Amino acid sequence: MFNRSRTLLLLFVVFMAGCVTSQQTASVAKPVNKPDKPVLPNVELTGKILYDILLGEIAGYRGHLAISVTALTSAAEKTRDPRLAERATLAAIYAKRYAEAGRNAALWVTLRPESAEAHSALGMVMLETNNVEASIKHFRKVLQISTDKNILKQRFIRIAAVLGHRRNRKSGLKIMRALVQAYPKEAGAQYALAHLAVRVGDLDASLVAINQALKIRPKWHEATLFKARILISKKDPVRIQKFFEQALSDNPGASRLRENYARYLVDIKQWEKALKQFKAVVRRVSNLKSLLYKRSVFATGLLSIQVSNFTQAEKYLLMTLEVSPDNDQARLYLGQVAERQDHFALAAKWYSKVRDTRYVFEAQVRYGVMLAKQGNLIAARSHLHSIKPGSDQERIKLVLAEEQILRSEKKFKEALKVLTSALKLLPKNKELLYARALVAERLDKLDIHERDIREILKQDPDNAHALNALGYTLADKTNRYQEALKLIQRAMVLRPNDPFILDSMGWVHYRLGKIKEAIQYLRKALSIRADAEISAHLGEILWHQGKRGEARSVWKKALRSTPNNDALLDTIKKYK
């Protein structure tokens, strides 16, 4: 409660600063030449009062809250010093001893009738004791103490924060509505009400209040941002995008709002639209040293990688380093951009420049994977083995990186050996189990595949990827089609628009002889993601239907974007 041992000393500094000491008395007097300060009581600092102050502070520091509150309450009532009344009030509120809190806050209000803090504290205590009318009375006084518009807005927001942290939040919302009614033209009042309504969980009430705030003050940027947050919480994508587009059309220079829109688009995976908005922020922000500009430049670089525009990604990541020279994350991504374009020397240069300890490990792992891409598998594995992991998670990443390069070289037996060795140290790790299950499936070791997936599902029954992996394997390599269908259906409930789950659903329907349904699922999967294996499956089914021209067209299109996919090539070879 009282934050370390220096609290006692601080209390004496505060309390004694206003005291004039004689042989046995300490009077709290009005300072000379400072008529604006209130008069403090002239009291005798008796042994009993000093004892109560000391006891209250020490007991509070040691966590004996009841003793602390009793002692400070006694000192406040004996001295009628407003500083001790405040101290005793806050201690009692912290201890949730609302009877003493009410007594002390009432004393504080008596001694400081024009103190917003005193009335706020008493209003809070009245709410905690379910005296709503008294609470409204004191919070109204908080608002009446100053007529300054800026202060009034801040006090509404402060009251909302106080009410939002109380147990009886619904009564708090009732109190706030009563307060707001007295200020029909105060946008800040509606804004505070909207905040409290969100805290209470009433999004509809919050939206009504924020709309009213914007009606009073139409171009209030802060309120517009908060309305966006409310709409996002209500999860209505069409309404959200319409709101953002209209708000930005009305105020194209609202860069913070535009950044929020861009981040929302990232959340819903609309990469191209998000990229467009971040680029617009970069163009419009004139202060190149601002955090908004730095964030937006960096985000533009990352999204450019996401949409495979590597030239643009490099441009914006280099711009990031111009304004943020210490951003080693940008260097890491520049390495990845170079690597994705097979510019291995440049990638190595960027990875070697990463010094930030948060990114050094990943940079070194990427460097090892890059060596393998250049055909130097021995050097790649040696490099990965030389990296010392600092945690189990880093150890897992190293194993998965080695497994990845072995799998890319079709060295499935060695990959299985690496994963099995790692699982001896971390036998329940889901990432390692999943990786081994996939490798085991490539080796037709279906017993290992199924055992590992079942272990994952034992730990995480709603793991959609594991459900889908086992379901697909059973459909593809066994005749356990009904069991496969049930697993894939469970996965699809969890992730209804996942293209790989839709692909599995199409494939199991094909195995069950339901060709029409199979084609429907596969076409939907391919519309979501242009994937080589999905194309291979769709083409194979079309071929068996006699639609060989359409099958060839599907395969040919897939070959243009993924010419080296083994599943696609094997399927084409089978029906050539």
Provide the spatial order of strands within the biggest beta sheet. 1-2-3
* CATH architecture name of the domain at 1-113: Alpha Horseshoe
Form type: elongated
State the secondary-structure class: mainly alpha
CATH class category label of the domain at 1-113: Mainly Alpha
Total DSSP E strands: 3
| First and last CA, distance | 78 Å
What is the share of helical residues?
over 70%
Low-confidence stretches: 1-36
CATH topology of the domain at 1-113: Serine Threonine Protein Phosphatase 5, Tetratricopeptide repeat
Could you report the average pLDDT, rounded to the nearest whole number?
A: 90
Number of helices: 32
Radius of gyration: 34 Å
Question: Major sheet: size, sense and barrel closure?
Answer: 3 strands, antiparallel
